[in-house]
Amino acid sequence: MLTETQLTIDAALKVFEIIAVIGGGATIIYKIGAAITKFEIIGTQQSGEITEIKLHIQQIADIITKQAIQSTRLDNLSERQTGIDKKVDAIQRELWGPNRTSSPRLKDV
Fold this sequence. Notes:
mainly alpha, 1 helix, rod-shaped
């Protein structure tokens, strides 16, 4: 039969085991709560960074649009200059003949 001392030791061990399980559970809950807090902080930081990246992407899109507009304007100016050059060449041929490659000097006119 169990003596009174053995019962007390068994009861103390059971109480210690229960306290250990509760303490371990509390530690796990605390660590999970800390991890969740860290994830929330990181999420907030990343949200700000994502917003900033979106702003930069919009600025880059605006720059690309402006560059495309300038490119189109340059193409139009180039086409216009080519047309003017052709008209000047045609006028020179009419005035000085088709075999002349340069305009005459003033005394030739």
